[in-house]
Amino acid sequence: MRILLRTLAGAVAVAVAGFALARYGAGKSTAAPPPLDRQASVANFRVDYPSTWRVVPAGTVPLVPLGDTLTLAAGGSPNARLVIGTQQTATGALPPRLAAAVPPSIKPQVVTLGSTRFYRYLNLTPHGQNVAESLYALPTSVGTITAVCEAPTYTTRFTSSCERALSTIKLTTGDVHSIGVDPGYALELNRILGQLNDVRRSDGAGLRSSRVGTRARAASALATAHARAATAAGHLTGQVSSANQALVSALQRNATAYKALAQAAAKDDVPAYGRAQAAVASAGSGLNAAFSQLRELGYIVR
Questions:
Q1: Which has the closest alpha carbon to 14: 228, 227, 252, 258?
Q2: Hey, which residues does 143 pair with through a beta bridge?
Q3: What is the pLDDT of residue 14?
Q4: Structure pTM?
Q5: Segment (H or E) for 132
Q6: How far does CA 249 lie from the centroid of its chain?
């Protein structure tokens, strides 16, 4: 199920009007990547990979229990490998032992590789290990297909290569489970943003008034509304904690910027008012970024 989230109304002249979709780019190169001209398979899936890689004896990944494992070693990258196997679970959560070895703040992203959506845990460095790894989880009816992209040092180039291969993965047994979002979170966030939108519509026009007092009152009302929204959003929970925290921070920045705008207007301080306007525009860009993070988790933001 995909959930629609409302963005903030564009009632304020200095606010950013739209929210751009952030796309993951693991690294750009001037040279074309090698073709995925080889194929390997195990019990539940098959995957394409470049001829510069090779299949090596099935390896194990510490803290990640996998069965029916396929291990691909990257040519020209010593100790860099992609291990794909099956966990006997039906969720995209980190395996318990790995979850205990990384910071508790680690939460999954939802990314689309090819035509398939995965949970992605990017650039993990488990305690006690000297490798960097990114984990991808695909819940299916026969277990969770799990891939670990592992190298001594994290690089976007190798991560991009792993993701190119994973974009070709096809099940040979079972069906993919859809990766959903939290409707309760979306409902509460829509309620919070709806209340904020009411204030932005009613008071936003006041910022364009020729009367200094009207502009000061409008900016003060907007500061209060954004601060209230930040507090309310800060109490929301779920698997979107990192994206939600970015939203809370952006709302707080807006509250601070509008407060400065109100103070500058009340003092008829033209230079300070100009600086505050720039701060409001910058805070609007922060909302852009926060909503983009929610899009990456599968929410539709309009």
A1: 258
A2: 140, 141
A3: 31
A4: 0.57
A5: strand 132-140
A6: 15
CB neighbours of 109 closer than 8 A, spacing ≥ 6? 119, 120, 121, 122, 296, 297
Write the pLDDT tens digit of every residue in 132-156: 999 999 988 888 999 999 999 999 9
Radius of gyration for the chain, computed over Cα atoms and rounded to the nearest angstrom: 23
What's residue 26's pLDDT?
39
Which parts of the chain register pLDDT below 50? 1-2, 10-29
Q: Which neighbouring-strand residues pair with 118? A: 111
CA–CA separation, 277 and 144 (whole Å) = 49
Beta strand pairing status for 4-5 and 45-49?
unpaired
Contact 126, 98 (CB under 8 A): yes
Distance, CA of 282 to CA of 279 (rounded, Å): 5
Residue pair 28/219 in contact (Cβ under 8 Å)? The answer is no
pLDDT at 66: 94
In 3D, which of 12, 48, 16, 14 has the Cα closest to residue 33? 48
Q: What pLDDT was estimated at residue 22?
A: 28
11's CB contacts (< 8 A; 6+ apart) are 197, 200, 201, 204, 205
Please tell me the distance from the alpha carbon of residue 211 to that of residue 86, in angstroms, as a whole number.
66
Joined together, the tokens standing for residue 279 give 């701060």
pLDDT of 24: 33
Tokens encoding 39: 């194929």
Q: Where do we find the tokens 């990257």?
A: 74
Strands, E assignment, 100-172: 109-113, 116-124, 132-140, 143-151, 170-171
